[in-house]
Write a structure and sequence with these properties.
The protein contains nine helices and seven strands. The protein is mainly alpha-helical.
């Protein structure tokens, strides 16, 4: 079960101020729907805590082992990766979602939010070694075989791929887009770090899941 956290500024999180004014009726009603659907107390300083309290109460009725996943929420962004506050509804930091999940690890998990257009998106995933055990390699095939959707040249320009690897990867893509996708991810490096082996060793996850 995935849960988006309801927000208020006092928690250090952000929601669009338009959701609090009747001058923007659609956004105002949207926030009221969220609060009502979650049976949340709309008292100052208690909105986020009320969400968590309510979920813990409801989780008590779920079978043992069932968990709720708290979702962080990145900014909406334009084509250059610049955050667009006026187009964003919420902004929930990864660190906040993680902190909430730690309160009840038997019932709660969390998921990071990394917008693919953010300029630091790829580097952020690679550098966060503590995230690697939670990552599973997957492919968006056939998209990796389409230029310019996946560009080794651009990744190299951003300093995340050795320039010498570009012609090799280009040749691999001509013959096998899946293999290209795999080798590219294994070759990406940021801050002296690459994706850990566990990211690509996905079989245990699916075997244990059955």
């Amino acid at each position: 079960m995935r849960i988006g956290l309801n927000l208020e500024r006092r928690s250090g999180l952000w929601f669009n101020p338009a959701m609090e004014t009747l001058l923007r009726p659609q956004q105002f009603v949207q926030r009221r729907f969220y609060l009502n659907a979650g049976c949340i107390h709309d008292s100052p300083g208690r909105v986020d805590a009320s969400v968590v309290d309510r979920l813990q109460n409801q989780c008590a009725a779920l079978p043992r082992g069932a968990k709720v996943i708290f979702l962080a929420f990145d900014w909406a962004r334009d084509d250059t990766g610049t955050p667009l506050r006026d187009r964003s509804t919420f902004y929930v930091q990864d660190v906040y979602a993680a902190a909430v999940a730690v309160r009840d690890p038997a019932r709660f998990e969390w998921a990071a939010s990394v917008h693919p257009l953010a300029k630091d998106a790829l580097a952020r995933l690679v550098e966060r070694r503590d995230w690697h055990p939670r990552l599973l390699n997957g492919s968006d095939y056939p998209l990796p075989g389409i230029l310019p959707l996946v560009s080794p040249e651009l990744i190299a320009e951003r300093g995340l791929l050795a320039p010498a690897a570009v012609p090799v990867l280009r040749e691999i893509r001509e013959h096998n887009a899946l293999l290209f996708d795999f080798v590219l991810k294994r070759s990406i490096e940021a801050g002296g770090t690459r994706f850990g082996h566990s990211v690509f060793e996905t079989r245990p996850f699916f075997v244990n899941a059955t």
